[in-house]
Design brief:
- The complex is a heterotrimer of chains A (251), B (284) and C (227).
- Chain A is of the alpha/beta class and 251 residues long.
- Helix content of chain A is 36%, strand content 27%.
- Chain A has a single domain (30-55, 77-246), classed as P-loop containing nucleotide triphosphate hydrolases (Rossmann fold, 3-Layer(aba) Sandwich).
- In chain A, strand 7, helix 7 and strand 8 form a beta-alpha-beta unit.
- In chain B, helix 8 (174-203) runs antiparallel to helix 11 (249-280) and helix 10 (231-240) runs antiparallel to helix 11.
- Chain C is an all-alpha fold.
- In chain C, 86% of the residues lie in helices and 0% in strands.
- In chain C, helix 1 runs antiparallel to helix 5 (119-139), helix 3 runs antiparallel to helix 7 and helix 5 packs antiparallel against helix 6.
- Chain C has a single domain (3-211), classed as Phosphate transport system protein phou homolog 2, domain 2 (Methane Monooxygenase Hydroxylase, Chain G, domain 1, Up-down Bundle), CATH 1.20.58.
- In chain C, 39% of the residues are buried.
- Classes of the chains: A alpha/beta (251), B mainly alpha (284), C mainly alpha (227).
- Chains in contact: A-B, A-C.
- Chains A and C meet through helix 8 of A and helix 3 of C.
């Protein structure tokens, strides 16, 4: 399998706080990588490095390199908006825009200059079908997205990300605000999407990481302690810290 | 038990105070309506003043006030909203931002008569607009600018950051995010700022005193460089320096009533507009 | 203590108790061999029942533990190995009883015969091994468990010699043929008992090191053919 992302010697500081310490990680194409670790361990910060979301935060300095399909996304002169167009992101709390369902999904295309009406309609439909939302909402695409249930909203947010055809999908605790049934639906979806997308998911739910991911990376206080296939991590982790964390002995 | 007693007492006081407030407001309105309603007639609204302002109507003052409201909003609203956007969406937390905010607050605290003086010096004399609707609108606009900036800023602050982030994550630029997401959602609250400032504009006397208001000018303005009468100043004149103060007293109450009704109508329609907007973009 | 830790401590404590009773059964079997009056058969039976019910209890507790705590890594291996260990302990208890039953029929058993088949040595090795693996289980120490793997070879050797020893002895004293044959079955059972102890040792190594020792050859076959 080809390498999708190659992170080497990545360091990130918020002012004086060293939030990510010398991270080296490579992510395979069409795989699901789960990032686990206690709160504040840097996993969310790390995922935000992959689409340069950290640029929005004040006083952040980053060094090291992040290669996305061989291209250094931290080189000077890179088009950041275009990068984010290519790397989709789903957030912890469902955050649909207070617009219609249709407009939510179409938003990414519109802001990126797509005007062709039938193309947009097709893409919206396709994305909603992919996220198994189409049958639930096809009759009221004009309805406000805010009126959907939490689980539907989150799937809408995923559909919104998929509409712009990203090459990679970042998910920051996508089910932490959802009930178990919605969570199962999203996990199902992740499994489906894996066939087409490279997915990186941050999760606090260890069972979730075990269920959906191929590779698991354990972060602790800004360091990447261990990364291995998920079955290895959950049956026989090499590092004691990893074992302590996944067996619930600290964190 | 003690806790419950103090709770009951405290909320009892709050209730009395709030009813008192409503009572005072009702009293003022009642006072003006009772005294003013007999002066109101179709002629009063559509005729020029006559007989040394003891009879006739107040049409030029109504039109003048409408012109000033419109002119000042046209000037202050775009500038205020854009400044608010700049302050909240573009400027990172810094000394400059704190300085700008401090200055905006200071500007809001300046007495309106000082604005009048400044407007006279700058617009009337220096820029040579003369006593005119233009000079008056600009002066009033300057006066309400800080209100609009502050309310815009506050309105935008209430837009959840998660929506901005979601927009950026889809590859939208800052400008696209502001105009497609942030501003539409903040609009209802921005409109609140507009309502507040319109109320102020229609009621202020001091800023127009030296810049536009005519003591007695029984004709409608034809261009923005004309002088005009205005309701608050007309009221002031009727009460303090008319040719026959006693005779024009009913006219004064009538004028006051018209002014109050005008402000009410504006508030109501702006509220309707606001409701329409917020229905479209309602958050959870 | 976390609820999970409490539950695992309970499983551990019960396993150790079951272990103790099993050791007692082996000791009693050895004593019975030397002097049938020393051991009450009733007690043996009672202990057997205890062992069976401990196995059942551990089975339920492990099921609960898996269902409630979804253990991973060392916790998961702890439960899996404990399940196997309780099975092996039950089998060991069974063996001890069967040895006693066999010995019961040998009314004219003499110390010379016992010495000829080195049965005492086998018993000693078994008791020692069982104590060692218990120690390994309690201290989560795989090194001690590895020592036991070596000791199993001694039992195999002695058992191998039993047949030829029996043949020679029967030729000399044909009238005692039945006893000699019974004694070979005792050595065979002690050898099987040793195998169960070895299994336990392997489970402990799996528990501690996550390394699967059993069926090493089959595993290669598995990797070649199924994976």
């Amino acid at each position: 399998m080809a390498k999708k992302v190659e992170v080497s010697n990545l360091n990130l500081r918020y002012g004086d706080f060293h939030a990510l310490k010398n991270i080296n990680l490579s992510i395979e194409e069409r795989s699901v990588t789960a990032l686990i670790g206690p709160s504040g361990c840097g996993k969310s910060t790390f995922i935000r490095c992959l689409n340069r979301m950290n640029d929005l935060v004040d006083h952040v300095t980053i060094d090291g390199s992040v290669l996305l399909e061989g291209e250094d996304i931290y080189r000077k002169g890179i088009d950041i908006d275009n990068l984010r167009y290519r790397v989709g992101m789903v957030f912890q709390k469902p955050n649909p825009f207070p617009k219609s369902i249709f407009e939510n999904v179409a938003y990414g295309l519109r802001v990126n200059g797509v005007k062709d009406k039938s193309f947009i309609e097709n893409k919206v439909r396709e994305s909603l079908v992919k996220t198994a939302l189409w049958d639930e909402v096809k009759d009221d695409l004009k309805k406000s997205a805010i009126d959907l249930s939490g689980g539907q909203q989150q799937r809408l947010c995923i559909a919104r990300s998929l509409a712009v055809e990203p090459t990679m999908l970042l998910m920051d605790e996508p089910t932490s605000a959802l009930d178990p049934i919605s969570t199962a639906k999203i996990e199902d979806l992740i499994f489906e999407l894996k066939k087409q997308y490279t997915i990186v998911i941050v999760t606090h739910n260890m069972q979730q990481a075990a269920r959906v991911s191929d590779v698991t990376a354990f972060f602790y206080i800004g360091e990447l302690i261990e990364t291995d296939t998920t079955s290895k991590i959950f049956t026989n982790p090499k590092q004691e810290k990893t074992q302590n964390y996944i067996t619930g002995r600290f964190g | 038990m003690n806790k419950k007693v103090s709770e009951a007492i405290a909320f009892g006081i709050f209730r009395v105070l709030s009813f008192l407030l409503v009572g005072v407001l009702a009293l003022i309105l009642l006072f003006i309506i009772v005294r003013g309603v007999e002066a109101i007639s179709w002629d009063f609204l559509t005729k020029m003043p006559s007989d040394g302002m003891t009879s006739g109507g107040i049409l030029p003052a109504i039109v003048g006030t409408l012109c000033l409201m419109f002119g000042s909003i046209v000037f202050a609203f775009p500038i205020g909203v854009l400044s608010g956007i700049y302050l909240n969406e573009y400027l990172k937390e810094s000394k400059l931002k704190r300085f700008l905010r401090l200055m905006t607050n200071n500007l809001a605290g300046i007495p309106s008569i000082v604005f009048g003086l400044f407007g006279m010096a700058l617009f009337v004399n220096k820029l040579n607009f003369g006593d005119s609707i233009l000079a008056g609108s600009l002066t009033l606009g300057l006066m309400v600018l800080p209100v609009i900036i502050r309310t815009t800023e506050e309105a935008l602050k209430m837009v959840p950051n998660s929506l901005r982030v979601a927009s950026y994550a889809l590859g939208a630029t800052r400008l696209q995010t502001v105009f497609r997401i942030v501003l539409p959602i903040g609009m209802p609250n921005v409109l609140t700022g507009l309502i507040l400032s319109m109320g102020r504009v229609s009621g202020e006397t001091a800023p127009i005193l030296f810049t536009v208001a005519a003591y007695f000018l029984p004709k409608l303005p034809t261009s923005i460089f004309d002088q005009t009468m205005a309701l608050p100043y007309h009221l002031y004149v009727l009460v303090t320096s008319g040719t026959n103060i006693e005779a024009s007293r009913p006219m004064a109450y009538g004028t006051a009533l018209v002014l109050v009704i005008m402000v009410l109508i504006f508030n109501l329609s702006a509220n309707l507009l606001r409701r329409k907007f917020s229905k479209k973009v309602k958050l959870k | 203590m976390l609820p999970q830790e409490q539950a695992s401590k309970m499983i551990r404590d019960n396993t150790v108790k079951m272990w103790m009773i099993t050791s007692v059964q082996i000791e009693k079997a050895q004593k019975y061999m030397h002097n049938k009056e020393d051991v009450k058969l009733k007690e043996l039976k009672k202990n057997e029942k205890y062992i069976d019910s401990y196995e059942l209890k551990l089975y339920f507790d492990c099921e609960n533990f898996l269902a409630l705590f979804s253990p991973v890594a060392i916790d998961l291996r702890f439960v899996l190995s404990t399940l196997h260990i309780s099975y092996d302990l039950e089998r060991i208890g069974d063996m001890a009883r069967k040895i006693v039953q066999t010995l019961k029929t040998c009314t004219t058993l003499t110390e010379d015969m016992i010495a000829l088949f080195e049965i005492d040595r086998m018993f000693d090795v078994c008791s020692d091994s069982l104590e060692k693996v218990l120690n390994a289980y309690e201290t989560i120490n795989s090194d001690i468990a590895r020592q036991v793997l070596v000791q199993d070879a001694i039992l195999n050797e002695i058992n191998k010699l039993a047949t030829s020893r029996a043949v020679t002895a029967i030729q000399k004293n044909p009238q005692d043929a039945e006893i000699y044959l019974n004694l070979t079955s005792v050595t065979r059972r002690l050898e099987r008992l040793g195998d169960h102890i070895k299994n336990i040792a392997e489970e402990i190594i799996f528990y501690v090191e996550a390394d699967v020792l059993k069926h090493k050859k089959s595993r290669d076959f598995l990797e070649d053919n199924l994976l």
